[in-house]
Amino acid sequence: MAAATVLVWLVSGPFFGYSETWQLVINTGTTIVTFLMVFLVQRAQNKDSRAIHLKLNEVVAAMRGSSNRLINVEGLTEDEVQALHRTTASCPNWRRRTRS
Which residues are CB-contacts of 5 (< 8 A; sequence separation ≥ 6)? Predict the structure, then answer.
């Protein structure tokens, strides 16, 4: 697909005399394709992130004696995550459990 696009670009340049309109069409086309590719990459990353969260949740659920209080922490807002971080950082039991 990319090679075909470059080929069309190379062939169409001399045909349109490298005019400003030709440049505008090419630039607009590449901008639209770039914008769409960003969405595709973002979607793939979100899918991978969800899969990793599910796998980690499964590991936590399978371990005997593990705490599941943070199993759905990805559903919290940024402010809630920050508050939870401050709370767990100041809790001596939490620090002792995470060191061992």
Answer: 33
52-91 pLDDT, tens digit per residue, is 888 887 887 788 777 777 777 778 888 988 888 887 777 6
| Cβ 71 vs Cβ 57: under 8 Å | yes
Three-state SS sequence of the chain: CHHHHHHHHHHHHHHCCCCHHHHHHHHHHHHHHHHHHHHHHHHHHHHHHHHHHHHHHHHHHHCCCCCCCCCCHHHCCHHHHHHHHHHHHHCHHHHHHHHC
Amino acid identity at 65: G
Q: Is the pTM of this model over 0.90?
A: no
